[in-house]
Amino acid sequence: MFTGIVQGQARVVAVDQRPGLSTLVLEFPEDRVQGVEIGASVSINGTCLTVTRQQGNHLYFDAMQETLRLTTLGDLKEDHRVNFERAARIGDEIGGHLLSGHVHTTATVRRVEASENNLTLTFQVPKDWMKYIFAKGYIAVEGASLTIGTVTEDTFNVHLIPETLRVTTFANLAGGDQVNIEIDSQTQTIVDTLARMGYDKPPQR
């Protein structure tokens, strides 16, 4: 499990593409690889990946074809930067909200609005997933736990403070970019349960 509190950025050193599989080699800050073991889980742009090899502060991850299809990891190139978070441990503070690292869908950046002390990003989401997105609710974008701002029929926005921009890759996003989305699991459970009970249907007249 992850907390949605991004711990920093890693740099893509290499991408080894083979049929049905890509191996990502990422360079991490020196102080963020201490105690890493083979088999450890790390969230990379919100996607839970397993460490398969370590060379100093370079960690290796294998991403299967299905993972590449459902996420933005297949678009990564050398020198791209990614958000990372190592798996939470029992007793860790949950500063965001609990995440599984299983990406539900991707969204498109539709608007980037910069002001003096924050940045507002607007994302367009496939309509099938909008039923789980509510103003003031939680959502994970690129592995970061964020509070949802305004919601429309097929978009939502988030407001980012300078510290979030410093730690994450959000400052580099531009219109048309794709991002990974993980829906809040509790919200999804409530919405789906109500739907099974028929409460998602308009009242009959």
UniProtKB/TrEMBL annotation:
GO terms for molecular function: riboflavin synthase activity. PROSITE patterns: LUMAZINE_BIND. Lumazine-binding repeats lie at residues 1-97, 98-194. Residues 1-97, 98-194 form the Lumazine-binding domain. Its EC number is 2.5.1.9. Keywords: Repeat, Riboflavin biosynthesis, Transferase. Pfam families: Lum_binding. The keyword Repeat applies. It catalyses: 2 6,7-dimethyl-8-(1-D-ribityl)lumazine + H(+) = 5-amino-6-(D-ribitylamino)uracil + riboflavin. One of its GO terms (biological process) is riboflavin biosynthetic process. It comes from the Bacteria. Pathway: Cofactor biosynthesis; riboflavin biosynthesis; riboflavin from 2-hydroxy-3-oxobutyl phosphate and 5-amino-6-(D-ribitylamino)uracil: step 2/2. NCBIfam families: PRK09289.1, PRK13020.1, ribE. Catalyzes the dismutation of two molecules of 6,7-dimethyl-8-ribityllumazine, resulting in the formation of riboflavin and 5-amino-6-(D-ribitylamino)uracil. This is Riboflavin synthase. It comes from Marinobacter nanhaiticus D15-8W.
